[in-house]
Amino acid sequence: MATTDIYCTDQAAKQQLVQIGKRIYDGQYVLNTDGNISIRVSPFEIWVTPTSVSKGYMTEDMMVKMNLDGEVIAGTHKPSSEVKMHLRLYQENPAIGAVVHAHPFAATSFAVAGIPLDLPLMAESSMQLGVVPVVHYATPGTNDVADGVAPYCQNYGGVLLSNHGTLTWGHNIMQAFYRLEVMENYAKTTLAVLQLGQARLLSQPQVEALAGLKKTWKIDDGVLPQGAAKETNTTDVLKSNLQIANNN
Description:
The chain is of the alpha+beta class. Helix content is 38%, strand content 14%. The chain contains 8 helices and 8 strands, in the order H-E-E-E-E-H-E-H-H-E-H-E-E-H-H-H. Strands 4-3-2-1-5-8-7-6 form an 8-stranded mixed sheet, with helices on both faces. Helix 2 runs parallel beside helix 5 (143-149) and helix 3 (105-113) packs across helix 6. It starts with 9 loop residues before the first helix and ends with a helix. 39% of the residues are buried.
């Protein structure tokens, strides 16, 4: 990531937290009062969502402003109990402008199973997000969670939190949110492919071609998956194995 050098205003940050909170709630990426979101507004200050409030019913006056030392600067509510991992990401990587933590069903299932999202299935997810590792379990709200995610914040776009949920980040709040969407779709597609029992994976040369596209499109972070040794997707498919079996 290149260093973030443009920050939104306090007012814009509070508005965006409300908007994205509603999006992740309506999209069923969180339930009840789950999840937390933050936005950086200066090199040393963030706005974060409050604790114990549904992300679908937040208002701007509920938001909490903090410095990167964890001190509350503005706001009457308590900040999210999991803000430590947000603060750590901002401290470690100046290019991170926003962080989203959620519990989407499919991706969280992979987090519980301890299975990373690393299959070279789709060009879009490979470029927009890349490999998603599973970080070892730590008690929510502790510094152990922050210590666990810190090593990944330079080169990856998000992680699965073992037995917990997902964490994505980006230059701004929309990139962090879009990565959440991509991660959940990646998990759903991976699960469907595993259930189908077969997949035509991207080959290593095809993955390397995507690396070139990333440079052209100035996507400067995310770890591309390892491609398959052989190409299996370079021919058209007119009939499925099931159709062939039925015809016989």
